[in-house]
Design goal:
By secondary structure, this protein is α+β, with helices and mostly antiparallel strands. It has 2 domains: 210 residues, PmbA/TldD superfamily (PmbA/TldD fold); 235 residues, no CATH class. The chain is built from 10 helices and 19 strands. The strands form 4 sheets. A 6-stranded antiparallel β-sheet has the order 3-2-1-4-5-6. The chain has a 5-stranded mixed beta barrel with strand order 7-12-13-15-19. The chain has a 4-stranded antiparallel β-sheet with strand order 10-9-8-11, covered by helices on one side. A hairpin with a 2-residue loop joins strand 1 and strand 2.
């Protein structure tokens, strides 16, 4: 088993810190247990139980009149390999750039407790196969084929440094991803992914039923012109946009370098009052690791409060440099990457999806975006395509499927035109990785720029 007890993991890290001759040393240990089953129309196609360790040694040494640092990693907790990794880090540090003046390793902190979800950690291949068989049984009578992935992951992260910092945290993730597609025309498809910390909280039956129903309804999509539409974006579509903003928009480094939509707007109320966006790794629906790559506690941080930007997330370096609080959002150091949000949460509103749809006279229901890419960071201009079933809304009712469209839209501009916020949070991801907690949104005047033939 890869997952170590808290005491054992901390002990391993402390031993390496004590053995290090460096002026300052930091040791981190990641332990992962990952089990997944891929499947296609005929059943499971790949089953894997993967276990791994990643040990990182970060050292600072006095060399050539300056304090210099480097980091080296290995994939084992074998004592000889760990000592060899420490030696490699020491050698690299001697030739590294000097540490920035004033940057020091953080001392003792209090880390909120976190625990693994045993049902997620213990979920078996037999249980995953039962879900796959249920999906196939529901899809086949409708002339649909299925494909997807069932995955359960448990991990712990531990960090100890020579300044007295000790941090340990755990995270679990369970997911069921299903695509149902027409056996005669594979471009007609619907997809769903449900995610939770506890595998017992996944409503797989509901996910299967809704995916099959949507795939049936998506047959014979009609062409429509590319133009601005009122859209109801379901959580997976919202997540594709918010994740892009998380990667590039809310970090102190981008803010300082004028590559952020926050620049010149902090405190300005430019969005609807109901829009509240935060970073919260402690959210009960999907908790994450409660500290960052330097072992600093990750604070719940408001990013957008009642329609106004409130400021960036930080790490130790950027908090000191900009005179801000360290919110604990930094990567493992040394790194050229700045801090970024770990888990965005868009606060829910007061309308059900049905009420959002009923409020639209003419518009589109969009379930998913893919190939979403950032084009311009200051206004958060994205381009991407609809996917997984896009439908016309007429007179407050979903009427017929439409062919996919490409959009090119500024997220900053789009958020100023949010006219409704769903009342249900979902853990929603995108094809390029990561999840956010978000509801559905109604956005008026969403800009589509080209059409497709499918």
């Amino acid at each position: 088993m890869s997952i170590l007890s808290n005491d054992h993991a901390v002990e391993l890290c402390q031993q390496m810190v004590e053995q290090s001759p460096a002026a300052q040393t930091e040791v981190s240990l990641l332990a992962v247990e990952d089990r997944f089953v891929r499947f296609a129309c005929h059943g499971p196609t790949q089953n894997a139980d993967r276990e791994k360790y990643e040990v990182a040694m970060r050292v600072r040494v006095q060399a050539n009149g300056a304090l210099r640092e480097a980091r080296a990693t290995c994939g084992t907790i074998d004592p000889d390999d760990m000592r060899a990794t420490l030696k490699r880090a020491l050698t690299l540090a001697e030739h590294a750039d000097p540490v920035a003046q004033g940057d020091v390793l953080g001392g003792a902190v209090t880390i909120p407790g976190s625990a693994l979800e045993r049902p997620t950690q213990d979920h078996t291949f037999r249980e995953k196969r039962a879900w796959i068989e249920a999906a196939q049984a529901a899809a086949q009578p409708a002339g649909l084929a299925t494909a997807g992935l069932v995955q359960t992951t448990a991990l712990t992260r531990t960090l100890v440094n020579s300044a007295g910092r000790v941090a340990h945290g755990a995270k679990a993730r369970a997911s069921f991803a299903l695509t149902a597609y027409d056996q005669k025309n594979s471009s007609v498809a619907a997809s769903t992914e449900i995610v939770h910390a506890s595998v017992d909280k996944l409503d797989v039956s509901k996910a299967i039923a809704s995916t099959v129903e949507r795939a049936q309804a998506a047959r014979a999509p009609q062409p429509i012109p590319a133009q601005e539409y009122t859209v109801i974006l379901m959580p997976r579509a919202v997540s594709a946009l918010l994740l892009g903003m998380a990667y590039r928009g809310f970090g102190a480094q981008e803010y300082h370098e004028s590559r952020s939509p926050l620049c010149g707007r902090v405190g300005e109320r430019i969005f609807p009052d109901g829009l509240c966006l935060m970073d919260d790794v402690h959210h009960e629906l999907y908790p994450g690791i409660p500290f960052d790559g330097e072992g600093a506690p990750t604070l719940r941080t408001d990013l957008l409060r009642h329609g106004a930007f409130t400021g960036p997330v930080t790490n130790a370096h950027w908090a000191r440099r900009l005179g801000l609080t360290n919110t604990g959002h930094g990567p493992a150091q040394p790194s050229s990457e700045g801090p970024r949000p770990q888990q965005l949460v868009l606060a829910p509103g007061h309308q059900s999806v049905e009420q959002l749809i009923a409020s639209v006279d003419q518009g589109l229901l969009v379930h998913q975006f893919h190939y979403t890419n950032l084009m311009e960071p200051r206004e958060m201009v994205f381009t991407g395509m609809t996917r997984g079933g896009t439908f016309r809304i007429e007179g407050g009712r979903v009427t017929h499927p439409v062919q996919n469209l490409r959009f090119t839209e500024s997220l900053v501009r789009a958020l100023t035109r949010v006219k409704g916020i769903g009342n249900q949070l979902e853990v929603a991801g995108a094809l390029f990785g990561g999840e956010v907690l978000c509801p559905a949104l109604r956005i008026d005047g969403f800009r589509f720029t080209s059409t497709t033939a499918f």
